Amino acid sequence: MQHLQPAPNLGHHLNGHHAGEPLAERHPPAGDRGDAPGTRLPEEHGLAGAVLDLVEAAGGRPVLASPQGDGWRDVTGAELCADVRAVARGLVAVGIGQGDRVAIMGATGYGWVVVDFALWSVGAVTVPVYPTSSAHQTAHIMRDSGAVAAFAQTPEHAGLLRAAGVPDDRLWTLDDAVDELAAVGGDVDQSRFAACLDAVQAADLATIVYTSGTTGEPKGCMLTHANVFYAAVNVVDMLDPVVRAAGGAPSTALFLPLSHVFGRVTLVGCLWSGVHTALVASPGDLPAALASFRPTFLVAVPAALEKLRKGARARAGGGLSGRLFAAAERHAVERGRAARGRPEPAAAVEGTGAARGERDAQADTRAGGAVDTGGAPGPAGPAGRGLRGAVFERLVYRRLRVALGGRLGHVVCGGATLDPSTAEFLTGAGVRILGAYGLTESATAVSINAPGADRPGSAGRPLPGTTVAIGDGETGAVGEILVAGPQVSPGYWPGDGPAPHEPWLRTGDLGRLDEDGYLYITGRAKELIITSGGKNVAPAPLEDRIRLHPLVSHAIVLGEGRSFVTALVTLDRAALRAWAARTGGPDDPAAARTDPAVLAEVRAAVDAANALVSRAESIREFRVLPTDLTVEGGQITPSLKIRRAVVAEENAALIEEMYAPRPR
Questions:
Q1: How large is the average pLDDT for residues 471-490?
Q2: Are 408 and 431 in contact (CB under 8 A)?
Q3: Using CA atoms, how far apart are residues 467 and 451, in angstroms rounded to an integer?
Q4: High-pLDDT (> 70) share of the chain, %
Q5: How far is CA 542 from CA 606, 607, 615, in A?
Q6: Alpha-carbon distance 85 to 77, whole Å?
Q7: C-alpha to C-alpha distance for 30 and 528, rounded to whole angstroms
Q8: Burial class for 456, CB neighbours closer than 10 Å (0-12, 13-18, 19+)
Q9: How many whole angstroms separate alpha carbon 557 and alpha carbon 644?
């Protein structure tokens, strides 16, 4: 086993806290970048006390923004702290305190933020429930966690929580929490609330986050105040030029669900660093939020970037405009590829946007993101050079950046693999992509590419104080990624057995480390397909590339124990309707799945994926499903991971058809 030494320290220990003062300096002291283990939460402090001290110091400066009509309502640091205290005093009044589990079910919004910090303030433990969870999933989480109360955003959510056993006097409306609990907490003495806040320790449990459950019932991952703080603050320190841009006013649009720890860690980091953060209820609301709020950076998952790229193609439409965009897209991919140090020929992007004929030269380019090129957005960047670049800059790239708000400089991308051509396209169009890697059990933060310290195709270097090793591997060899660090979970709820993550968190992900400690993600151990011929096939790069086609919603690559690789594909309903309006083809997925023109489009997407791999790894057959995969149908988890076994079982006959012997 090869061990990687901890990355250079980019933070510092917190100390010298006094009442009424920020818990720590917002900037690490100059020169304090040695081998110290990073910024830690002092043992005697909890998350709420640490973060809200800094937020309160912001006073009248906006720290959050909530949608209001066609615009935004700013929330100042003083207002947020007052609302958190009001809800926390109400919680004290109704008897909720240290160690009590309390569920929150709802979309990302101001109420979620206030309630989460209020629960942390009194030592309670937040149990997020995805707003798309089924009755069975909701009941399992409530029963397993032993939650004693809950907050619901909608009447439907409230109904699910009541059915799961939450009594009416312990069920509050998420968006009305400030008014509802302030009314009952008005008589709670400030000293009583302060005593609750002071009793919270860094090692106390902050949240139980239920994992996706792709192969069974979700398990409750326990994260302490120290875990969440360490992940959030050390990522901020590594991204200092992005989140604390000199002479600017950094801002972001947070559209990640707060029911997932990725969104909450991002929020904590933004509040800690003073980033003006717009709260966006869902990914579908992101395009409008980008145009109106105009953030300077985003934290995103690959699916969101793919949708932005496909949305730009869709807006271009067909005809001359569509051909112009296709040419500009090819040019941007070429420029982005060269800027990232990969000068192989870029993919042709033809017709409705199917990528054809691209071959990735190295498996490490299939990691979870791209890198900062160092070039400035716009004409000075890679896409703006040369006559063609100047034309595309004026007619395509500039308009794209305007659609993204006109100020977007960086996107931090983690959570899954990102198709390299999408990273190259955005880089070439003037938006810098920084790849990252993490998982729920590490509070979503293991490694990240930082501006000026990045590497093409990698997921960056480990956070300060974090050790990454590759199981049974030498430098450059592929194996299971192992992680140790202060952000790693103590285990799964209820935690009455041996700690499963000591000394290593076994991630189940496959990767390698280069000689400089950069991590490359190559696949998921449980999803690795081994054909009957003994060929190992990583499905993610193939699926990512197929999914780039505008008509494709999901792709599932199959072939375990079979003689060759196949795929199931679903169609994007909205994209299909737009395509049908242009071409006169069928607009219903059930009818379109056998339409020759639709099959030709999907075949082009499959061909583009096959260009990434050898013949033995290529997809020989595919079928288009009559309906999409959904959370409600049980084929997708609330965190949008595909339940492969469910999809395979439901489509067993179709799969056997693909493997049936062909008549000679």
A1: 84
A2: yes
A3: 21
A4: 85
A5: 8, 10, 13
A6: 12
A7: 45
A8: buried
A9: 9
